[in-house]
Amino acid sequence: MIEIKSISKTYDDQKVVDNLSLSVPRSTVFGFLGPNGAGKTTTVKIVVGINKPDSGSVSINGQSPTSPVARKEIGFMPEEPHFYDQLTGLEFIEFANKLFGDGGSPGKDLKDILGRVGIYDARNKKIRTYSKGMKQRLGFAQALVNNPKYIFLDEPLDGLDPVGRLEIKTILQNLKEEGKTIFFNSHILSDVESICDNIGIIHRGKLIYSGSISQFRNGLSLEEKFVETIKSHTR
Amino acid sequence: MNTILVIAKNTFRQTIRDKILYGIFTFGLLFIGSTVILGSLALEDNIFIIRNLGLAGIYIFSLIITIFLASSLIYSEVENRTTYILLAKPVARSSIIIGKFLGLLLAIATTTLLMTLAYIIIVVTNGGGIDYSALAAVGIQMFEMALLIAIIILFSIFTTPLGSIIYTILIVYIGHSLSFMLLYAERSGNLARSVLYSIYYLFPNLEKFNIRNLVVHNISVSSQDTLIVTIYAITYTVFLIYLAQSLFNRKDL
Amino acid sequence: MVLSIIKNTKLLITPALLGLIISFQYYYDKLETRRPIIPPTIIPAQILRLTNLGLDSATGVILWIQAIQKMTDVPIIILPKLIRNINDIDPKFSYPYAFAALLLPGAGFPDEAVEIARIGIEKNHADWRIPYYLATTYHIFLKDRQSAAFYFDLASITPGAPENIKTIAVRYGARKNPRDQTKEIWTSIYGTTGDDIIKERARDYVIQIEILEFLERAIRIHKEKYGFYPKNTDDLITRKIIKEIPPSPFEVEYHIQTDGQINIQ
């Protein structure tokens, strides 16, 4: 269970996240939506423990993610992930894996993960040579090395072609069936619609909706309702 | 502790594969080789010339490699936000700083060692025997490099990468000229004097890591001096790394 | 057809431009000889220390190499200043002191030579060449045999002095003939130096002394044959005692004294 309680964060006198509260039940997929600049990335960075909120708290599985130990159960994929260009894909995954100590996966599993995300063939090539799509997949792979119970993804489908998007969405579906809790940011509504159980909508740092998709749509298409909601909050 | 070593090894791998490093390194080797030619121009004492210029070359090129390598590593970390992936793992922020420091130190120690090897071979093949004291000079030089790496890491946390390069270069020059500052201090009024004396004691005094002038004249360094220099270096470096990781802990990324 | 001309012209552009660049450089170099020679700027040691990151000895070495390379086309008056600057930046770099001690007097700076050498001895106890060359200068140029003896002594007790140097130093003063002594000193310097300039100078002195010895032998033969000394060296040739006067490495005039000894101008 992911519990976000009244977190706020201010950067340069601007309140980027404003008193946000959410909960995500276990083994569900939660889609976090909002226009660009709404505060999605800031929120997710706080939730995985990269930054501390100015006020409020986060608890994942009962623990605060700010302590390194708590992050053993987390996998995180940042937006537009970047890597150490001189390493090969496999070396990078192995490096990410070693950071978990015993909590990581055995060697052959790493190759399976690379296969799962579709870059097994490029595993011995330097990341310098990877395309954007390949980097995106590698970013996803490194989030899975510790077989985490909680997976956080920031724009996971960005930069992927339609085939890639389907592949990743399938993986997400499988992960959900394996009982993982998934939290992901997106501004592509159709993706959200197809995999998420619940959604949250953030606008200018404030949470303006949290709950099930069908309840939100209320008969309209997700896109229509979304745009309408944003516009009404902008006035 | 384990994560520190993992990060260190990874940093080492990342830096040692940098192509530009090889360019600078090759120039360093060429320079050391060319000291033989310069030595023959000097009429007599050509071993003296070779040793002098060789050790100077090892120093200058190590300096260039250190400043370049450390700042480009930090630069790409900052630009590419590679740290986000690291920070979401069960890794303490301080481990990241310490791990990067150790990885960089190892990479620079390796290139310095290779240049020193070339130097020793050149001295031997020119009739100078195995220059053991040069090893001491290079060893103590590594303390200076370690300090500089720590400084660059510290600066990169709160300034731009270009800024940290410029400040570090300034610190290198000032660090070697601090004794002149004292001469100034002697002639100044009380306020200026206290300021200058404070700068003198707080700034890293880099000249103490320079035993080259003694080594080429075959003057040995006392073990007491070596001990104090070692302790100074370790203390100052630990201090800088400690500052760096404190700042890094507080920083929003 | 027009196109092919244009294509060919394009191919010529790169070599043409390169050719121009090379020609202009060549032309510039040719004009070099007409430009005034700028004496080297001597950057004071103190300023160099501010910028050399502590690499004092290496800086001294570079200055020394520069000084040697420029020695031929630098106005001689600069030489002591150059050497002094090197001494300033690396007081323990002993060779320039020795070099100055031996060669500055020949260039017209005996006092400077003595002063530089004295500083060198003070700062550098381990180099025998400084006192030895200073003693040589005292002996030959300043005709101060007392100081020469003192410094020869000093050289002989300096660690690292070769055996023949020690012998010469010890026997100095015991030998009656100063010219023999001088020849011996120069021979020893020739044998122990690796420095081409000094070697050449020493050889020149030895050759000059040998010429004098040769001419004096010829003068004695003349005296034995004719009963009187020749008026000048040409007489030796016309009277068929020697074939020719060997060329002197220094441009000297020989004057024969009334007692048959040769004097050099």
In short:
The complex is a heterotrimer of chains A (235), B (253) and C (265). Chain B is mainly alpha-helical and 253 residues long. Chain B has helices spanning 2-16, 19-40, 46-80, 83-87, 93-125, 132-158, 161-176, 178-186, 190-202, 212-216, 223-250.
Structure in words:
The complex is a heterotrimer of chains A (235), B (253) and C (265). With 235 residues, chain A is of the alpha/beta class. Chain A has helices at residues 40-47, 89-98, 107-117, 132-142, 162-177, 189-195, 213-217, 222-234; strands at residues 2-11, 14-24, 29-33, 55-60, 74-77, 150-154, 181-186, 198-203, 206-212. Chain A has a single domain (2-234), classed as P-loop containing nucleotide triphosphate hydrolases (Rossmann fold, 3-Layer(aba) Sandwich). Chain A contains eight helices and nine strands. The model of chain A has no long low-confidence stretch (mean pLDDT 88). With 253 residues, chain B is an all-alpha fold. Chain B has one domain. Chain B is globular and about 60 Å long. Chain C is mainly α and 265 residues long. Chain C has three domains: 41-91, no CATH class; 94-193, no CATH class; 211-264, no CATH class. Chain C contains twelve helices and two strands, in the order H-H-H-H-H-H-H-H-H-H-H-H-E-E. Chain C has a two-stranded antiparallel ribbon with strand order 1-2. In chain C, a hairpin with a 5-residue loop joins strand 1 (254-256) and strand 2. In chain C, 32% of the residues are buried. Chains in contact: A-B, B-C. The interface between A and B is medium-sized, with 33 and 24 residues.
What characteristics describe this protein?
heterotrimer; A: about 240 residues; alpha/beta; 6-stranded mixed beta sheet; 9 strands; about 25% strand; globular; B: about 250 residues
Helix percent of chain B reads over 70%
Low-confidence runs of chain A: none
Question: Mean pLDDT of chain B, nearest integer?
Answer: 89
The radius of gyration of chain B is: 20 Å
Instruction: State the order of secondary-structure elements of chain A, H for helix, E for strand.
Output: EEEHEEHHHEHEHEEHH
Domain module count of chain A:
1
CATH 2nd-level architecture of chain A:
3-Layer(aba) Sandwich
Largest sheet of chain B: none
Mean pLDDT of chain A: 88
- Do you know the CATH topology of chain A? Rossmann fold
